[in-house]
Structure prediction request, 588 residues.
Amino acid sequence: MEPSSATPENRSYWRWSKRDFFPEKSFENGKSYCAALADTCPRLKDRLLNRSSDSHELLVLPLASEHRMNRCLTWWDLSWLAFGSVVGSGIFVVTGQEARFHAGPAIVLSYAASGFSALLSALCYTEFAVDVPVAGGSFSFLRIELGDFLAFVAAGNILLEALVGAAGLGRSWSSYFASMVKSDPEFFRIRIPGFKPGFDLLDPLAVAVLLITNGIAVSGTRKTSILTWMSSLIATLVIAFIIIIGFVHGKASNLSPFAPFGVDGVFNAAAVVYWSYSGFDMVATMAEETKKPSRDIPIGLVGSMSLITVIYCLMALSLVSMVNYTEIDADAAYSVAFVQIGMSWAKYLVSICALKGMTTSLLVGSMGQARYTTQIARSHMIPPFFALVHPKTGTPVNATLLTTLSSSVIALFSSLDVLSSVFSISTLFIFMLMAVALLVRRYYSRESTGKSELARVLICLFVIVGSSAVGAALWHSRILGWIGYTVSACVWFLGTLGMSLLPKQRAPKVWGVPLVPWLPSLSVATNLFLMGSLGTEAFWRFIICTAVMFLYYFFVAVHATYDVEHQNEGKTNDEGVQDATDQEVVVL
Prediction:
């Protein structure tokens, strides 16, 4: 495959030739593609055994974007981007439902448990993002430690969930705004007779919201960051007001009984409210645009998630203090609670805060989705056309257009009921894989780990993951009761203890997760436990979507990545690495 003679400086950003989408040798013509298909098995074996490296992700792949993303974010920006991404409408929606039907006043413990699990995952993300500050987030990190195949499955699922989530947020924004204007959530929607139920209400307002927020996100990272933290500061004042009023009007009698549904109710609610914490992983994709990753990412990501956990627990406590859990309105908990204590006007503050949360979640989500897509395209798992960074904005415009159009089409036709049924285990699955990848990173090195040492690491990992999965299955099925849970916990403890006795092969470059392997192992256990608390439908969606991704991988991605990996065999990467170094890839 001959390189193009044109350089980034004299090539237009807007170009649409076949070579821009499929430059690999396997896709030159029908004959070459048939030859590639005939060679699928050895190519698949090569891809399954292949691992990327820190330097390849950090120095070589960004060259495919032709221009650098602007390094303009500090710990202040990352903190508010995380806050804006995570603190959306979820806290206002699911808190009332779960307190009313599953946890009672113990909803506070549900938020604490979910927050602890999210914080463990944030720690794993932070270590990787500091060591490898690139736009790919979990895709790049998993590609380095667990290989192309698992990284592709993980990235495909999280992108699908992000697109569906963005469409759902757009529809929710439309419903919320319509309810404020006309007390009719379907006021701005257009019914199309003859369409299948669930797809017969077109929502042009949701599409408009998605186009506007994505347009802002693509205009510049710094602009989006400033808008996010300014609006989030205002929302923080509203949240502080909600908490203070809740405690002022709270009654201790409303907290009794504290856990009316027992321990089961607390953890079942924890699995649901966990989604209120989702979104921080999108911030990890912005590591490439961070000025000083070694300082800014730990403060911005871990600090913000710790603060958000405290805020969520205080908000939940203020609600169950104001109103007895049996009287909480499951659909509009905070708004109705203020009406019940004689402060009807305050419900508008709650509505404004919820709309703000959905808007900033869409803004940060748009940025994260585009950067995931960019790094995947850099590896040629999808066409490299989507890896290009615009020279003026310093943002991945093509990738943003792809995710915007996809989520807009879904939002236009699909109802909230349809979108809510697509809730997935993808995020928890990827968080679990990230914890496994961190353990692999600390205890395995391709250059120095022998076969016997590798076998011991694999055995420990198998015991940790297996015991956690069995414990989650027992909890979900209620088989064996506390005896089964205790045995699973003991086996998990022995597996983690065994790994702690193995020699570490690698230390973090700058910032690392403390108490390894205990905290990453606990992250594996908590994520699998929360996965086990989800319904069967989520698992079927995950299986079906993953099967579709397998087909794409076998027929397209495996051949594209194989060609890219082997087209320069016999050559060194010195030139590419030097080019990347000249463009200041890393500033630690």
Remarks:
- The longest strand covers residues 190-191.
- Strands lie at 190-191, 201-202.
- Residues 148-182 form the longest helix (35 residues).
- The mean pLDDT is 84.
